[in-house]
Amino acid sequence: MDADTFTMLALERAQTLWPHAEVEAVAQLHLRMVPTENAEPIDIPLDNFYATAAAGEVEAAAIDSFLRRMLDMRSAEGGPASLARLRPLIIEAAPNRSDEGFVRYPFAADLEIVLVTDEGDSVSFLGGGDLERMGVVPEDALRRAMENLASDAAAAHAGVQTDYKRGGLITIEPDDFYAAARLLLPSVQNALREAGGGTVLVGMPARDTVVALRESPEAEDQLRRLIAEVYEGGQSPLSPRLYRLSAAGLEAVLEPADETTEWPAKGPLPLLAGASIYFAVMLAGILMRPPDRREWWVFPAGAFGIALGWFLARLRDRRS
Known about the structure:
Helices cover about 45% and strands about 20% of the residues. It has nine helices and 13 strands. The strands form three sheets. A six-stranded antiparallel β-sheet has the order 8-9-11-10-12-13, with helices on both faces. Strands 4, 5, 6 and 7 form a four-stranded antiparallel β-sheet that branches. Strands 1-2-3 form a three-stranded antiparallel β-sheet. The longest helix is centred in the last third of the chain and has 29 residues, at about 290-320.
């Protein structure tokens, strides 16, 4: 393959990899990419790769891998971090926080996705300006962050463990900073559903804790208790909610309705309250009315007292 043909092939692959960017061949074996409107151009020399590949046919996958490595190196030189260090992170959605500059993506219910760069012992949250300097648009940045996370994780089944001593409780391993974020990966979702034998209930009470059980009423009660325990006592709490993971994806499970007292009200409280009001009204009638008018007035007033006591008891139960 001659140099011009190789240059055109590399240009075609670059345009496929980064459809939102402007990529052109500025010379033989030299590409230039402008990722976004305000970003600095990134030069991608091809001569070294061509020298090693010219002896035989070059597969598209090999060119793609080379182009990504080159973009990583150029981004590291000209931006705050390399694309290779991009990772997705799940955080609790809170519109009123002071981190409005973060790049955000919707996830599920009370959660959203943000992008970070992993520096090994710390992470930095990214904003739109950071992505511009790195030469990547938000959609491509999320895709790359997911690819990086997938390459970090072990094989799908190796990352999911089932504890049969705890009723088949399923967890994602390792229980590190990205445990909850791994739920974004289709391979991990499939492994969770396979471990649970179908639809599973999932909790993410902390960033480093994911728990799941095969869907059932008993599993829902067990998970809600476990989620509350971890969420209230964890160092990196994430969400107190319960989610359902099925073939259709991840969705929040509605919270159980507030328990209300059925009619008639349960327990002795309505009777006691009504009886107390009845006797209070009856005593007032005895003291306030002449003897010849006490009898007819006391009984309807007592009935009203019982009804009022019943209503107050029901109101108390609804608020408790």
